[in-house]
Amino acid sequence: MIFNTTHSSKENKESINEFVGKSYGFIESIKLKGIGSKRMVIDNVSPNLKQYLNTVSDINYANLELRPKGVLIHITKGLQNFTWAIPYYQLVIYRTNGSSIHAQGKFIHFKNNRMFKENKLFFDKLLNEKIKFDEQYHFQT
What we know:
- The chain has 141 residues and is of the alpha+beta class.
- It has helices spanning 10-20, 26-31, 114-117, 120-135; strands at 2-4, 40-45, 61-67, 70-77, 80-87, 92-94, 99-103, 106-110.
- It has an 8-stranded antiparallel beta sheet with strand order 1-5-4-3-2-8-7-6.
- A hairpin with a 4-residue loop joins strand 6 (92-94) and strand 7 (99-103).
């Protein structure tokens, strides 16, 4: 689900909290050594996400935020902000010349540059949180 978060809205906040959980508290975020990534350059997106990017030749940026049941991707388009909420059970990450996040029939690919490399530890933390979430559910083969 993608929300317009330019202006705070009680309905959007409640929907996001229901979808991926409430934001971590201060102590929990310290234990995790941070819950947000640095901003990264968006290299490419799926056609159904293009409307949330700048149409002129500006560089598009996004950053990620961990939540207990998922991740938020904050996209900036000019003066507008959009948030894509992805629960862990829908999250798929590919590492090909940068990193690509897929969910809900959409994807966003981050450029492999200095900004992306600074977020390597964050992506490792994101994968660990996804694994912890997935371990709650035992699948029989």
